[in-house]
């Protein structure tokens, strides 16, 4: 028994992409994201973040700092009745200065590794799943994984989802 998921890119979809955001005080929600997450929580679709975090390989911040940011995010979402069911991240980047993370990874979008792993670990139906991302590589990762990708280029992601995504689910 598998179920569909909502995959979300992080930077540019959940938070405004100020560039390598890694501190809660710099974390600014994309308008409408809490409503979007809450909606899919209510549908019992797992909401799964899939995020390239090459800032770790570039030495801008540590995995621990990223996890602390995500813990603060989850706590804040909980206060608003919303929940992320899982966060998959890729800290690797070939040629980056932090040796431990200097490698090609099948997880780095546009490669689909994070989606495939989430499907395996969470029992997801990729063909019924959707991804919302703000970059071409997000959409490619979704397509290679067999899911449907939606490129968000607007301002309010809940307005976008209601206009473009939800009608596709019926
Ligand atoms: Mg993005």
TrEMBL record:
It comes from the Bacteria. Transmembrane segments: none annotated. It comes from Acidimangrovimonas pyrenivorans. Its EC number is 3.1.3.-. InterPro entries: HAD-like_sf (IPR036412), HAD-SF_hydro_IIIA (IPR006549), HAD_sf (IPR023214), Heptose_bisP_phosphatase (IPR004446), Histidinol-phos (IPR006543). This is D,D-heptose 1,7-bisphosphate phosphatase. It is found in: Cytoplasm. Its main location: cytoplasm. It holds the Pfam family Hydrolase_like. Belongs to the gmhB family. Keywords: Carbohydrate metabolism, Cytoplasm, Hydrolase, Metal-binding. SUPFAM superfamilies: HAD-like.
